[in-house]
Automatic annotation (TrEMBL):
Membrane topology designation: Multi-pass membrane protein
GO molecular function ontology, one term from the record: siderophore uptake transmembrane transporter activity
Low complexity: compositionally biased ranges: 14-27
Organism encoding this protein: Komagataeibacter swingsii
Domain TonB-dependent receptor plug, first and last residues per copy: 63-164
Protein name (Swiss-Prot/TrEMBL): TonB-dependent receptor
Lineage: superkingdom: Bacteria
Composition-biased stretches (Polar residues): 1-13, 160-172
Stretches for region Disordered: 1-27, 160-190
InterPro entries per record: Beta-barrel_TonB (IPR000531), Beta-barrel_TonB_sf (IPR036942), Plug_dom (IPR012910), Plug_dom_sf (IPR037066), TonB-dep_rcpt-like (IPR039426)
Entry-linked PROSITE patterns: TONB_DEPENDENT_REC_3 (PS52016)
């Protein structure tokens, strides 16, 4: 099959130039003909298709699943600003409320809410492996893969697939797939330069088919540097992606995907509403400060983050018999680095506390001090890893598609918060230590979580496959064991849960163009990792800063969707009505830079999503999406011993309306797009006494392709413009608070543009 596909590919289209020229040159030159071979977006063996396929700009496709799904294809991704992370790429999709801390997606200081649920309630996967941080569940999507190597990004706004290996999917799932290596030898290169001294280079090489071995591979490298768009500091990122595929027989394959990422990024302040109204983008006293003065809490170097990680996944597919196949995905991730959170001061004379234990001896070494105080950076040092495998057996008999699966996951999270002394110029002099060598540490804990999940499902087809009924059941068992590595009354922290997750969906195709569907799905999320531990006011005194939560519960959700889809050669559209009921709804906040877990009780969410796109008319492709959302808190919330009357209040970070509209143009030589996203007002506090205004943003892209020039294949130039009108606004809630004045917000990046030269070779 691979050889046949390669023959057609060589004769029909020049596939090795597709990504380099902005996604659609091949289809445009071939009159709409597309050829897809290798590994598909779902990880299975992709079938050869040579058809008059219709393109809708890469923002929507004809979905067949009985649930809401939005898929962003490589056609669209290839035209966005290089370095865009997965969150930025789905911003036009219905239900997605994205707040970016950086205009180009370089920083992980970003957030996505889907149907009013934050990113810590969304399950993220990359190449079939879970990617939520094991401690606070954030996705850190800028670290996964270069955008040039993304095949697609899929957002499932509601019901997660039964095979999804996550314990954080009560708010939906997002899956990112890497492009496979090409069958023809060649490469791609692009270089970008733009505002904020943005400078990036990317190169990829594909081996093509290696003799008759069934092997092919690619490897890529990118280097990025930029200045912080607001305040002092710089961003630097080095990234490597690679993938190896071995194919044989009737659809069998083994693949190995990997990435390495090393980044050092600036941090941006998250103002309160009152500070934003007073200062806007300029002279906010909470902004990062470029000059150091003794004890300056917001000195920019005391917030600069650094992180290194590497990732491996091996999605593989085996045909065991005519109607029996096995999919197995083993994976491994390791990451480590520092997310410091500002400067503090500490006495030169002590006493110093480690947990509840006091030590009156002076600090070791010759530490710089003023007026009996030492200035120090508060570090957050994390070493995290997760490994496991997900295996699924598919068996087809009569009108049944049966699935049997098992997922095992193991995560290891170690956190330390040592203090680094500073000299008179603000340079680190190393960790502060006592005479016995003990590091002054604000917090230290170690958590291991093991997950076992068994699932079974049956997809039944009736009435000549017009009617499809899908039933499934998943049992997830999790064991979390940890230690607080500081003296005090708490040492062990243990938590065990077992959650039954039944599901059912039904769909009916009235005609090949009209489909209706409905589903009922259950999902859940484990509590935040840091909620298990005491935190003492170390090293200043031995008092409790945070008490370990003794009444932990899994967040559990029951969601229902009813929807309809329509598609023909000119249009594709969908409309979905949804309803959620949450119990033990979890809110994760930060109090004094400390992650804080809050069980908010019950919540109800309902509304509708819609999206529509037209086939290109005179090379113009329109797209639009809309969402109406009603998210209500059903319980009162108690924080720090105070009960707030929040029952009946609107949920935070849940805009009532969102809408997006875009136009794309591509005639094979010239291409461009303009897009508008509108987000309604959002409450930032539980009591609904503080809100940020609704906002809109316009982005634009223009580009042109040239014929081959020597060894350069379809070279192109494009310009991506972010926030064209330079609107200044707060784009989302960074940290929810109970009452006005306690919440913090993301600041939307101002106008930015990036020019890119791309070519194949």
């Amino acid at each position: 099959m691979a050889q046949a596909a390669d023959s057609v590919q060589k004769n029909s289209v020049n596939a090795k130039t597709t990504a380099a020229v902005g996604g659609k040159a091949t289809a445009a030159r071939a009159g709409g003909t597309t050829v897809n071979t290798g590994i598909n977006a779902a990880g299975g063996a992709e079938q050869l298709r040579v058809t008059g396929a219709r393109s809708y700009g890469g923002l929507i496709r004809n979905e067949t699943a009985a649930k809401s799904v939005s898929t962003i294809s490589h056609d669209y991704i290839a035209k966005q600003a290089p370095a865009s992370n997965a969150l930025a790429l789905v911003a036009m999709s219905p239900g997605a409320n994205v707040s970016m801390g950086d205009p180009f997606g370089v920083s992980d200081e970003s957030d996505i809410n889907v149907r009013g649920l934050n990113q810590q309630e969304i399950g993220f996967t990359f190449e079939g492996a879970p990617m939520n941080d094991p401690d606070d569940y954030t996705p850190n999507s800028s670290e996964w893969v270069d955008s040039e190597n993304m095949d697609n990004v899929q957002l499932q706004q509601g019901a997660p697939s039964i095979e999804t290996p996550t314990t954080t999917s009560s708010g939906g799932t997002m899956a990112v797939r890497m492009r496979g290596p090409k069958h023809t030898r060649g490469g791609e290169f692009d270089v970008s330069y733009g505002t904020h001294q943005m400078n990036r280079q990317f190169i990829r090489y594909d081996s093509g088919d290696i003799a008759n071995t069934g092997l092919r591979a690619f490897a890529s490298f990118s280097d990025l540097t930029s200045r912080a768009w607001r305040g002092p500091g710089r961003n630097n990122r080095w990234h490597v992606d690679y993938k190896l595929v071995k194919e044989w027989g009737d659809g069998n394959y083994i693949s190995l995907s990997g990435s390495y990422n090393n980044e050092h990024t600036a941090w941006y302040s998250t103002p309160t509403l009152s500070d934003w109204n007073k200062y806007g983008l300029k002279n906010n006293p909470d902004d990062m400060q470029g000059k150091y003065s003794f004890g300056e809490a917001n000195y920019y170097k005391s917030y600069a983050t650094s992180w290194t990680d590497y990732f491996l996944s091996a999605p593989s597919h085996f045909k065991l018999a005519r109607n029996l196949t096995l999919d197995v995905t083993p994976y491994y991730y390791h990451g480590s680095g520092n997310y410091p959170f500002g400067v503090t001061t500490i006495s030169t004379t002590g006493p110093y506390y480690n947990g509840t234990a006091a030590n009156n001896s002076p600090l070791a070494g010759n530490n710089y001090s003023e007026d009996g105080q030492i200035a120090a950076i508060q570090n957050w040092i994390g070493v995290e890893g997760y490994t496991g495998f997900n295996s699924t057996l598919h068996y087809k008999v009569a009108n049944h598609d049966l699935v049997f699966g098992y997922w095992y996951g193991y995560t290891d999270m170690h956190v330390d918060e040592p203090l680094s002394g500073l000299d008179a110029s603000g340079n680190s002099t190393g960790y502060l230590r006592q005479q016995d060598g003990t590091t002054l540490n604000e917090w230290s804990y170690h958590t291991i979580t093991q997950t076992n999940a068994l699932y079974i499902g049956d997809t039944m087809h009736f009435l000549n496959r017009k009617l499809t009924l899908d039933v499934g059941f998943k049992e997830v068992m999790a064991a979390r064991n940890g230690t607080l590595n500081q003296p005090g009354p708490q040492y062990n922290a243990n938590y065990y849960s077992a959650q039954p997750l039944p599901r059912m969906s039904v769909s009916y195709k009235f005609t090949p163009n009209i489909m209706v569907f409905g589903n009922v799905t259950t999902s859940y999320r484990l509590p935040l990792g840091s909620a298990f531990y005491n935190q003492y006011d170390s090293p200043w005194d031995g008092g409790l800063y945070q008490t370990a939560n003794k009444k932990l519960h899994d967040e559990y959700s029951v969601s229902e969707e009813v929807g309809a889809r329509y598609h023909d050669k000119w249009i594709t559209a969908s409309l979905t009505l949804f309803n959620y009921n949450f119990s033990h709804h979890q809110i994760n906040e930060y109090i004094g830079n400390v992650p804080y877990y809050q069980d908010a009780g019950s919540m109800t969410t309902r509304g509708f999503d819609g999206e529509l796109a037209l086939h290109p008319w005179h090379h113009i492709t329109p797209y639009g999406s809309v969402e109406y959302l009603y998210a209500r808190q059903d319980s009162n919330i108690t924080m720090d011993g105070v009960t707030y009357q929040t029952a009946g209040k609107m949920a935070t970070s849940a805009p009532r309306w969102m809408a997006a509209a875009g136009l794309q143009y591509d005639d094979g030589r010239f291409f461009g797009s303009v897009s508008l996203k509108y987000v309604d007002k959002e409450y930032g506090t539980f009591m609904n006494d503080e809100q940020i205004s609704g906002h809109k943003q316009v982005d634009m892209m223009i580009g042109a392709r040239a014929p081959d020039i020597g060894f350069l294949k379809a070279p192109s130039l494009r310009l991506n413009v972010i926030n064209l009108a330079d609107h200044h606004y707060l784009s989302g809630v960074y940290n929810t608070g109970p009452v006005a004045g306690t919440a913090q917000y993301y600041t939307a990046p101002n106008f930015a543009c990036l020019g890119t030269f791309s070519t194949g070779f």
